From TrEMBL:
Keyword vocabulary terms for this entry: Phosphoprotein, Sporulation
InterPro entries per the UniProt record, alphabetical: Anti-sigma_ant (IPR003658), Anti-sigma_F_ant (IPR014237), STAS_dom (IPR002645), STAS_dom_sf (IPR036513)
Signal peptide extent: none
Native organism taxonomy: Bacteria, Bacillati, Bacillota, Bacilli, Bacillales
Record-annotated STAS domain positions: 3-113
Superkingdom: Bacteria
PROSITE patterns associated with the record: STAS
A Pfam family reported for this protein in Swiss-Prot or TrEMBL: STAS
Record protein name field: Anti-sigma F factor antagonist
Described function: In the phosphorylated form it could act as an anti-anti-sigma factor that counteracts SpoIIAB and thus releases sigma f from inhibition.
Name of the gene this protein is made from: spoIIAA
Family: Belongs to the anti-sigma-factor antagonist family.
Keyword Nucleotide-binding tagged: no
PANTHER family: ANTI-SIGMA FACTOR ANTAGONIST TM_1081-RELATED, ANTI-SIGMA FACTOR ANTAGONIST TM_1081-RELATED-RELATED
């Protein structure tokens, strides 16, 4: 299965929805797409929606951590929404939840950023 990336920009927030598998085959492509969107759209905050992500490996963790550092450096916040149990467990074991919050859905994530939709 491939990875599909859907991005939406609204009021300084980039919402990235990933569908499929984020692994060593797809990590570079999604990293480049997200970096370009962050720079081009002048995004301060990032919501990463993982509700339709079926699989992620350590390459995916690297993509997430790298985008967190980029957003954090810009003075923004990054949050995760809707990870399935397997992806949620990987994120938890990696320690990413110690630096970025996870929410059940995009609406809660936007509220957590204090951005009203």
């Amino acid at each position: 299965m491939n990875l599909q990336v859907n991005m939406e920009h609204d009021r300084g927030v980039l919402i990235v929805r990933l569908t499929g598998e984020l692994d060593h085959h797809t990590a570079d492509g999604v990293r480049m797409q997200m970096d370009e969107a962050i720079q081009k759209q002048q995004c301060k905050h990032l919501v990463l929606s993982l509700k339709d992500l079926q699989f992620m490996d350590s390459s995916g963790l690297g993509v997430i951590l790298g985008r967190y550092k980029l957003i954090h450096h810009k003075g923004g916040k990054m949050v995760i929404s809707g990870a399935n149990p397997a992806v949620h467990r990987l994120l938890d074991m990696s320690g990413l939840f110690k630096i970025m919050p996870v929410f059940d859905n995009e609406g809660s994530a936007l509220s957590g950023l204090e951005v009203v939709s």
